[in-house]
Amino acid sequence: MEIISDKAAMAARSEAVRLEGKTIAFVPTMGYLHEGHLSLLKKGRSLCDYLVLSIFVNPTQFGPNEDLDAYPRDEERDQKVAREAGVDAIFMPNNEMMYGPNYQTYVALEKLPYHLCGLSRPVHFRGVATVVTKLFNIVRPHTAIFGEKDFQQLAVIRQMVKDLDFGIEIIGGPTVREPDGLAMSSRNAYLTPEQRKDAAALYKSLNQAQEMVSAGEKSAAAILEKASETILAVPGAEIDYAKLCDPATLDDVEAIAGPALMALAVKIGATRLIDNKVLEP
Ligand code: PAF
Asked: What is the pLDDT along the chain (281 residues), one digit of tens a residue?
């Protein structure tokens, strides 16, 4: 496994792989790898000849009061995990390499970011779309795999790839969960043991919502009220949003008439967790 920090070297490696007629799968991450990332790497490994993982904690997707400095990092462990997962190259640029002096170009979408996480994290999706564009241009993959836990991010990337004709196949990987249902996330590392137990309330509320829909409940307000009750039973929990929306547009739905995305962002203490489930009537 090669570890590449220089973007010209990464681009040259990809070019050489392409010239050999081989296909490239790409899993972009911010590191601190967990089972969720491993499932994306496994998918990539099965689809293409050459597997690239990027690890870059992208400063432009964090707001001024967010956890950029505290974001968990463990390069040595990540490299070991990547090697075991059959990664061919890890691209690990630094800030200077990605955003040099006088950097001034950003990629922004017009609709999808103005929902869900984008409302409380106004620069987030501009930062994600920008860094993913740059990573795609450097790595030049045939296929890229992103987790469905970040449903809105996946929607933004699919839209961007379509609008800007990237010609890259985007694949969503199912959310990987802890035994109690908590979605795997690098940010789970911030939780105290007590908060870690309480965090299972998100998954519990998603399942309760599905049960209500299966029993014939159509009112989004009733479903969301039950979810709030379950989540707010956790001491110190604060709901950023609990929404039912159209999975394609992310517009709110008031009555369930087809598959509806239930999306949650909840702060447990200082840790903001997200999760989602497409509810099927
Ligand atoms: O999902 C993530 O880890 C990040 O948002 C991504 C896609 C690697 C961009 O920085």
From this structure: 999 999 999 999 999 999 999 999 999 999 999 999 999 999 999 999 999 999 999 999 999 999 999 999 999 999 999 999 999 999 999 999 999 999 999 999 999 999 999 999 999 999 999 999 999 999 999 999 999 999 999 999 999 999 999 999 999 999 999 999 999 999 999 999 999 999 999 999 999 999 999 999 999 999 999 999 999 999 999 999 999 999 999 999 999 999 999 999 999 999 999 999 999 99
Q: Which domains does the chain have, with CATH numbers?
A: 2-173 (3.40.50.620), 186-276 (3.30.1300.10)
Q: Which of 132, 160, 176, when mutated, tests ligand 1's pocket best, judged by the most ligand atoms within 8 Å of its CB?
A: 132
pTM of the shown model? 0.98
**Is 142 in the active site?**
no
Cβ(58) – ligand 1 distance below 6 Å = yes
DSSP H helical ranges for the chain: 7-19, 35-47, 75-84, 95-98, 116-120, 124-139, 151-163, 193-198, 201-214, 220-232
Q: At what angle do helices 201-214 and 220-232 cross, to 10 degrees?
A: 150
